[in-house]
User: What shape does this take?
Amino acid sequence: MWNAILLSAAAMTAIVALRYLATSGVFAAITNRVRPGYHDRLGPQIRREIGWSLASAAIYGVPAGIVAWGWQERGWTQIYTDWNAYPLWYLPLAPLLYLFAHDTWFYWTHRLMHRPSLFRTMHAVHHASRPPTAWAAMSFHPWEAITGAVVIPALVFLIPIHVAMLGLVLLIMTVMGVTNHMGWEMFPRRLVHSRLGGWLITASHHQRHHEEYRCNYGLYFRVWDRLCGTDRGLSPNA
Assistant: This one.
């Protein structure tokens, strides 16, 4: 049993690491093409970002691997594979529940980590990326990585979700995590400045957090920032 669990944890760590390298690599290449010179003189910073991110991959991969083993071998989780197990209207609802729950957890833990003592201990590594790059999406101190690594493994025990919809959640997490750190806005202006865009977080919103620190704490949505008065809008520099 323990060998199987260790193998599952190692496999998930490898998957998370390769997913990070592939996704960040693609968007870093796009940045080099669209914003020539953006990465100039950032070589040492990018190497640090990759190092911290690969360490974070293990912290994310181990609980994910244990949960994956428990799902397959013990039926521990609420992940299901039968499309008819729940009504079809529930299929798109489950990812929204996951994203909102993750966003809520992220907002409050992220805001807490901006208190001076916790910032120095947990969050300074991430903000050492000046300016942030596509490689910074998982550049966390291990203590911060732990706060992020527990969310999805916890939710699969609480909220039923089809395995394909769980894959969609992970895809959105990965893409938004990377694109929000690119330092420039890749989404069309008409979307970012639309009524819908006013509730979504993209690079121009998160860039302002990296510039001013005490605002724009959300991950996917601007709901908590707006409710708590911490939304300061978009950065003019992204």
User: Anything to note?
Assistant: The first helix runs from residue 2 to 34.
